[in-house]
């Protein structure tokens, strides 16, 4: 049994506007969802009663029950439109729910009692089973509103008692008669229905409490997430300005614009410049991640020639490749290869893939970028002959702040954000990114895009709308 505290809590929720609205909407939503299941049951029972008992009475009761279903359907639309603010509307809906419940339960009770009256011998298994089924259905699906459930079960309970006393009044049997056995069995059934109804109601209340806790936790999580995003954005912006000045100053020193750099300072200044570049990349990645998660990263889509895109990306990383002693080759697409995309964002993705391929390759090796058409799709592949990626590492490869080699002595550093950002940019293009790899042999990352048709080229050249992800 529910304790007094739980009952009082449930009562308080019911009488609050938000609590009552939730109960009413849950009740009417489930009522309308189960309308065809109820109709199928009513029609089956009416057909059986019409064949074995009185067809006129069966048809009349079915029509009355169907009428209450129509009223419930109309009431469901009104309750869905109720905002929960106007209490008079809530009162009206409650009264009509009670009226419909009384009509429906009374029609069903009259129907089963009439079947029992037509049976002069052999017990009342059929009408009692119909009534038990209706009561169990109510216990299972009407637990959102205890007052409505009690009203329906009270009417069914009267019908149970009428049938239970029917043969006792008819025959006045001795106590050892099966008639009395049927009577006590019906009493046990009533107890079972009352108990199971309470259990369903308790479970519904627990679900509401759990839902409330989940919502509260969700609100706390959202608040923490917003604070984190604001912190990252503020820190990143505050760091960018002084870092830009430091990088510019170091560049001037390295180029000799402020005079020749003493030999013993060149190494230290070079390290400072390199770390400044690393920090700038980290800040840019954090800002990009924050924009994507906040839905503030803008995309300007237009038809893009993939061969030209790849050539531009390779040229932008040429200096880096030369320093590492790695050759980058391009295998262009022979057919017309155009996609709908944001060139600057796609260059960002390509630069990340090329940078990773170069970092994990040995001096003297080759990185190949291939463009090919695959039916209605275009694939861009970046293939290296580096160390490879172990199996089962995909979650770390595309995760946030993760590295496949997360040890303190890893060869290649990084923020662990590049591929995660690249994946999100690619997905904003309705494309996909994946890879195949073998340890000690190399890795191939590939991007698959939808290929533009000629008519789409013309349409895209006339208009290149901006899109916010």
UniProtKB/TrEMBL annotation:
Q: Which UniProt keywords apply?
A: Coiled coil, Kinase, Membrane, Phosphoprotein, Transferase, Transmembrane, Transmembrane helix, Two-component regulatory system
The coiled-coil regions, if any, are 201-228
Key word Transferase present in the record?
yes
Q: Mind telling me which residue stretches traverse the membrane in this protein?
A: 42-67, 101-118, 124-141, 153-173, 179-198
| CDD domains associated with the record | HisKA
The UniProt record lists the EC number as 2.7.13.3
Question: What protein is this chain from?
Answer: histidine kinase
């Amino acid at each position: 049994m529910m304790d007094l505290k739980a009952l009082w809590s449930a009562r308080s929720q019911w009488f609050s506007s938000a609590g009552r609205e939730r109960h009413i909407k849950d009740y009417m939503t489930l009522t309308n969802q189960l309308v065809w299941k109820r109709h199928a049951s009513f029609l089956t029972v009416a057909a059986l009663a019409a064949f074995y008992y009185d067809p006129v009475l069966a048809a009349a009761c079915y029509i009355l029950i169907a009428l209450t279903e129509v009223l419930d359907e109309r009431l469901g639309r009104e309750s869905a439109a109720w905002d929960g603010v106007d209490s008079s509307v809530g009162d009206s809906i409650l009264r009509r729910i009670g009226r419909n419940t009384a009509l429906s339960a009374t029609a069903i009770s009259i129907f089963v009692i009439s079947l029992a009256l037509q049976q002069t011998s052999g017990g009342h298994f059929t009408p009692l089973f119909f009534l038990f089924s209706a009561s169990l259905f109510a216990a299972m699906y009407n637990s959102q509103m205890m007052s409505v459930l009690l009203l329906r079960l009270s009417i069914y309970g009267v019908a149970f008692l009428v049938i239970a006393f029917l043969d006792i009044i008819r025959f006045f049997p001795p106590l050892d008669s099966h008639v009395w056995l049927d009577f006590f069995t019906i009493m046990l059934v009533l107890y079972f229905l009352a108990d199971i109804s309470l259990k369903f109601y308790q479970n519904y209340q627990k679900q509401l409490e759990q839902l409330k806790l989940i919502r509260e936790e969700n609100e706390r999580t959202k608040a923490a997430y917003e604070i984190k995003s604001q912190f990252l954005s503020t820190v990143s912006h505050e760091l960018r300005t002084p870092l830009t000045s430091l990088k510019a100053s170091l560049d001037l020193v390295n180029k000799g614009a402020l005079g020749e750099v003493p030999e013993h300072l060149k190494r230290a200044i070079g390290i400072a410049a390199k770390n400044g570049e690393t920090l700038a990349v980290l800040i840019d990645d954090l800002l990009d991640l924050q924009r994507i998660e906040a839905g503030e990263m803008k995309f300007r889509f237009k038809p893009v020639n993939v061969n030209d895109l790849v050539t531009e990306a390779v040229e932008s990383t040429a200096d880096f490749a030369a320093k590492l002693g790695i050759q980058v080759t391009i295998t262009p697409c022979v057919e017309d290869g155009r996609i709908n995309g944001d060139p600057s964002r796609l260059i960002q993705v390509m630069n990340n893939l090329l940078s990773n391929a170069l970092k994990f390759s040995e001096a003297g090796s080759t990185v190949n970028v291939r463009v090919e058409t695959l039916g209605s799709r275009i694939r861009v592949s970046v293939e290296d002959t580096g160390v490879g990626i172990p199996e089962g590492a995909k979650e770390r490869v595309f995760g946030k702040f993760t590295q496949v080699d997360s040890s303190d002595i890893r060869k290649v550093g990084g923020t662990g954000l590049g591929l995660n950002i690249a994946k999100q940019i690619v997905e904003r293009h309705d494309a996909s990114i994946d890879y195949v790899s073998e340890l000690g042999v190399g890795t191939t990352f590939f991007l698959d895009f939808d290929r533009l048709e000629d008519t789409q080229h013309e349409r895209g050249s006339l208009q290149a709308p901006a899109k916010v992800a």
